[in-house]
Structures are given as C-alpha cells and as structure tokens.
Amino acid sequence: MEATMYEEKILSRRNIVIMSIVVLGLLAALIYQLVVGPLGTQPAPDALLVGMILFFVALGINFSTLSIKVRVDGITVGYGIIRHHLDWGNIVGCRPDEFSAARYGGWGIRTAWAGGKRRLVFNIIGAPRVVVEKRTGKHHELVFSTRNPEAAMKAINEGLGRRF
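Now predict its structure.
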C-alpha cells in the first residue's frame, strides 16, 4: 500500500478575505493614529495595534489552508500548525455529514454535539463534510470539510479494509 492514499489542501479564500479585512482595518487605524492623531480621548497604544495586526496576520496564515491526509498510519486533518491525527485502530467508519454547516457555528475548528455525539470539526465555508466515527476519545467523531467527499471516504474505507 502506498504511503499516501488521499491528500487534499483546501485554500479558503473566504477565510483569507475575512482576515485581510480585519488586518486592513487595524492597519488603517494605526496609520490614521500615527499621521492624523488619536481618535477620541483614549487612543489605543500603537504597540497594541501592531500586536493585533501581527496576531491576525498569523491567524490568517494558519487558517488559510485546511489539509487532509489519508495515509498508511491513519488520517490527519489540520489547519496550519493545529492538527488532529487518528490511527486506523481508532476508526470505526465514515459517512457524509448530513448536518448544515450553520450547526457548527462557523468555519475553523469547532466542537459540537450532533446526534448525541460530540464532534471535533475542521470546517471550511461552503464545502461538504465527512464524518469519521471514532472508537475512543474525548470526541466521538471527527468531521472535516473536503471538496471531494466521495474520494476521501473511498480512501478511508480502503484504509480500514487494508489494516487487518
């Protein structure tokens, strides 16, 4: 069996646009404050604005791409440096997600209850999702967005079939 059975990287343009708007707004506030003067009687410290700009740039970079890997050692899903890995021995099966994305309260990494089970969700705006049922753990299911749920589920089912 090859090392990687399925791999996908989803660039979330909407996440990038949202974070860019926040960063540009903070940058505009900083430039205005430096050039024109403070807005109001209690201006934000320049260092705070710079720190917030850097924080949102880092956040935007980290959450710009969702990566999914189905490999011989299991499934890894993550945004940037934040990843979740499941070994094949902890996976029961997979299926398409029947719930609306609105149920999860937005994009990014979420936890939610669905059908009486706690889910760890890696969500992208506007993409279908796959549910991976776990044997053990704090979360009963892992849910992730994918542009190609059929191919992802096929790779997961092949991995489950080949682990014995």
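Residues 4-8+68-162 form a domain with the PH-domain like fold (CATH 2.30.29).
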